[in-house]
Amino acid sequence: MSYYCDFDSAAAAIDGMLRELVREQFGDMPRGELDAIREFVFRDFMHYLATRAGIYYWRRFSERKARQALCIYIERMWGRLWDIASEWFALWKIKWNQRVRLVFSDDEFKRVTQSVKWANGLESVMKKIDMSELRLFVIANLVRNGEVAGVEQIAEYLIRDELNALVERAGPEKTLEMYKTGQLTARLLQRISSLRKVPDPLLLLKFDFGRTTP
């Protein structure tokens, strides 16, 4: 017997719940920044729920099936969801303050990021890797290790930074071989585990007229 769950309605209900939590904690923040915070909170919490439900550990990930599974999970947990969200949000706020650095001008943003150099061949390697699967793997393990704020952006940074280091040291072909044999994911797990010892920000956000640039 099949059961259809309206994911959009479930997501809208979650969004309303989280907006209330954000309003309580960040109500005096300027409108543009507040909107950006709400978007991060919503996406981070949905990743948290999906990880908690075990969805990101599927061998063959299907977005359509994942949305249904997450929707059903939300419905089943609805009676406890406010308590779950409140507890999660308390940790999220701590991690947001720890991991995110805000800048408000193009000059400051360029000054911080201009030293970043990417290896030749990095983009070609990334095109040959299942980046979607790798991102979900990293996001799930970030959440399991208590990193719950800005997980999409931090996952992207960790993957790109690790690949960049491997391409520079071993070259594109060897890097792809390390990906296929699981050595890349093992290195990423070590990076994630080591974050507990890193107190510094991992994510730079530039606020500009209500828009954010990771």
Q: Write down how many β-strands occur, each being a DSSP E stretch of 2 or more residues.
A: 3
Helix content percent band: 55-70%
How many structurally independent domains? 2
Low-confidence runs: 209-214
Biggest sheet descriptor: 3 strands, mixed
Which structural class is indicated by helix and strand composition? mainly alpha
Helical segment count: 9
How are the SSEs placed, and which strands pair?
Layout: H1 7-26, H2 31-52, H3 63-99, E1 100-103, H4 106-113, H5 122-127, H6 131-144, H7 151-170, H8 172-180, H9 183-194, E2 203-208, E3 211-213
Parallel strand pairs: 1-2
Antiparallel strand pairs: 2-3
Helix pairs in contact: 1-2, 1-3, 2-3, 2-6, 6-7, 6-9, 7-8, 7-9
Give a description of the structure.
- This protein is mainly α and about 210 residues long.
- The protein folds into two domains: about 5-100, no CATH class; about 110-214, no CATH class.
- The protein has nine helices and three strands.
- The protein has helices at about 5-25, 30-50, 65-100, 105-115, 120-125, 130-145, 150-170, 170-180, 185-195; strands at about 100-105, 205-210, 210-214.
- Strands 1-2-3 form a three-stranded mixed sheet.
- Helix 6 (about 130-145) runs parallel beside helix 9 (about 185-195) and helix 7 (about 150-170) packs across helix 8.
- Mean pLDDT is about 90; it is low at about 210-214.
